[in-house]
Specification:
This protein is α/β, with parallel strands linked by helices. Among the domains are: about 150 residues, Rossmann fold (3-Layer(aba) Sandwich); about 70 residues, no CATH class. Helix content is about 40%, strand content about 15%. It is built from eleven helices and ten strands. Strands 6-7-8-3-9-10 form a six-stranded mixed sheet, with helices on both faces. A four-stranded antiparallel sheet has the order 2-1-4-5, with helices on one face. The protein is globular. Bound molecules: adenosine-5'-diphosphate and magnesium ion (MG). The site of magnesium ion has 3 residues, from helix 1. The site of adenosine-5'-diphosphate has 11 residues, from helix 1.
């Protein structure tokens, strides 16, 4: 699902590489802690996974895609499968909780019916049902981070990447955030979380990848933060055994369950609403009148990575072929405000920026 092959990342004007010959693989359904001191390379690693940057040497494969050969044009479609959470929440202060969560969905042209069911569902998954009308400043830090997580999962991504999501929170609140991320993982989403905080990592007994000055010094299936006894003895290859398979099977089972109950109901509800209330969609720039296409978009993700790739392609083909992509600029959201323009593929970038940029 995510593979680093001999990845080195050098930033311009720095002597030591930020990442030095890193090799590891994350399987579908895993929960992985990326740990290490400040400056050890955790954020660089996550940025390579989101394709906010590309490696200087080596390859980064995410969902079957080599991030270096993936074009800028395709990147927004690729990123729809990846939810991101940051230390500083990054909520829009002038928008309601509901608007914060639905923002990206509107930008990518999701139907009004989809948004109407997906937003409350995401709020429920983070334990904040009924909060859609509140403003971010009315919420505690922990609640704001849970809103950010709801935003990250609302489009049902296959991967969630969290960069120090508890870094601004007190220990009790941090535990709540960890529980939310754990539940998201239990429902089948692959989670990679960077942290320098030992407490959770010790308690959760999940896989730990430890970086030190850009080098991978530990990759342990049920690790403890700061325990360096295994340094240099555990290779990523050794982890691809029964436990990884078991994790994957369990995740697929949960996904099927979700597919049978929740998602299928969502499709029916979305289609029914679109058929029953065509008048309501008249004022909408969005593609509410495409009920027949909704089941495709809502298909539960029980696919293997090749199918995931196909989905990225399909989404791209659909978006390129459909006139609905012309409705994107009409959406009343301030993309710059969130600093999300580039992630959503709205900002223009020159093709010559593809590749090992900095
Ligand atoms: P961490 O997230 O573990 O604190 P980072 O990935 O942010 O580590 O940083 C790893 C190293 O790369 C640090 O030495 C940092 O100073 C350097 N670095 C990170 N981003 C940049 C950048 N954009 N330009 C130059 N150096 C950078
Ligand atoms: Mg960092």
């Amino acid at each position: 699902m995510i593979r680093f092959e001999n990845v080195t990342k050098r930033y311009r004007g720095t002597a030591r590489p930020a990442l030095d010959d890193i090799d590891f693989e994350v399987e579908r359904g895993e929960f992985v802690f990326l740990v290490g001191a400040s400056g050890s390379g955790k954020s660089s690693c996550l940025r390579l996974m989101m394709r906010e940057d590309t490696p200087t040497d080596g390859r980064v494969l995410v969902l079957g895609r080599d991030t270096r050969t993936l074009s800028d044009r395709r990147t927004p479609y690729f990123r729809r499968n990846i939810g991101t959470v940051f230390q500083d929440f990054r909520l829009l202060p002038t928008k309601t909780v509901g608007q914060n969560i639905s923002f990206a969905l509107k930008v990518i042209g999701r139907s009004r019916a989809f948004i109407k069911s997906a937003v409350p569902e995401a709020l429920e998954r983070v334990g904040l049902e009924g909060m859609a009308k509140r403003m971010p400043h009315e919420l505690s830090g922990g609640e704001q981070q849970r809103i950010a997580i709801a935003r990250a999962i609302v489009n049902r991504p296959q991967i969630v990447l969290a960069d120090e999501p508890t870094g601004n929170l007190d220990p009790t609140t941090s535990v709540e955030i960890m529980r939310v991320l754990e539940a998201i993982n239990a429902a089948g989403t692959t989670v990679v979380m960077a942290t320098h905080e030992a407490g959770f990592v010790d308690k959760m007994q999940r896989r730990v990848i430890e970086l030190r000055e850009g080098r991978l010094v530990r990759d342990e299936q049920h690790g403890r933060y700061g325990d360096t006894s295994a340094v240099g003895t555990l290779r990523p290859e050794a982890e691809k055994g029964a436990s990884a398979l078991a994790a994957r099977t369990a995740a697929l089972e949960v996904q099927r369950e979700v597919a049978d109950r929740g998602v299928a109901t969502g499709v029916v509800a979305a289609a029914a609403e679109a058929v029953a209330a065509p008048a309501a969609s008249a004022d909408e720039p969005g593609p509410t009148q495409r009920p027949a296409e909704e089941p495709v978009a809502e298909e539960p993700r029980v696919d293997e990575s090749t199918a995931a790739e196909a989905e990225v392609d399909e989404a791209q083909a659909a978006d390129e072929a459909s006139p609905r992509s012309t409705s994107i600029p009409q959406v009343e959201v301030d993309v710059d405000e969130l600093g999300m323009a580039e992630r959503l593929g709205i900002e223009r970038r020159g093709d010559d920026e593809v590749g090992p940029t900095s």
